[in-house]
Amino acid sequence: SSQQSLHHLLPLCTTLVAPCSRAASFTSRAEGRNWERRRDVEQVYLRCSEGSIEWMYPTGALIVNLRPNTSPASFKHLTVCIKPFKDSAGANIYLEKTGELKLLVRDGDRSPRKVYCFGYDQGGLFVEATPQQDISRKITGFQYELMSKGIASDLHTVSGELGDIAPCRPCSDTEVLLAVCTSDFVIRGSIQDVTNEEEEQESIIHVGVSRLYRQKSKVFQLTGESGNWRGQIKTLLECGVRPGDGDFLFTGRMHFGEARLGCAPRFRDFQRMYKEAKDKGLNPCEIGPD
């Protein structure tokens, strides 16, 4: 089944697709002359699972070819997400397939939700410079990530071809138990405070950590002389998260360097569902619930 294929794909993506920490920078060679579509289109080939593109003084166009170091048979299971830099300007970003262009990001777009996702097999990226009336410095740039479609569908920030997922719906017992096994971070903690960012349409959850089960990146760290673990998790403003009493089991994914909230049941509810699954021998993985 497709679900079984996805599980077999995940180790392949994790081990063979190396992340990039370096940005790829390009300066157009077409400055000072008129652009001709056939002459002034540069191709860029990237084999990393994540990274960034920065194009200085954009003129002409770039074709960005993402070529992950995986089997071509796995491409249909991949999702591409891009996040334009906050000050990106000077070009439109299109999804291109067999010569047809579909606009993804318009030059100067400052919409709050700046993550755009599409299936890898739906086309590549075509970045086209827009005519400029002034000579001020322009830089077009964006981050990109390649991920399994199963992982992408868990993220609340995805948009575009994937469609928007109902982000604030409570997780089922099965979803919680799977999230514990597959999430980038799993912690027990309490909500210390919530900061709402109206412009970004996001909420930042300030979490006090009482037990750290797992984290992929150092989002949660020891702070102060007391040695308490703290960190921040982002979710959509529309979810209406507020400070409250009691502990939760927070799970989620890292997305463009930020912790995004996944399933987050109250800890006592997690203890119940974990014990019930363990008694029936249905635990997808082992984790100490206490």
From TrEMBL:
GO terms for molecular function: hormone activity. InterPro entries: Meteorin-like. It is found in: Secreted. GO terms for cellular component: extracellular space. Its main location: secreted. GO terms for biological process: energy homeostasis. The keyword Transmembrane helix does not apply. Keywords: Disulfide bond, Hormone, Secreted, Signal. Belongs to the meteorin family. This is Meteorin-like protein. It comes from Nothoprocta perdicaria (Chilean tinamou).
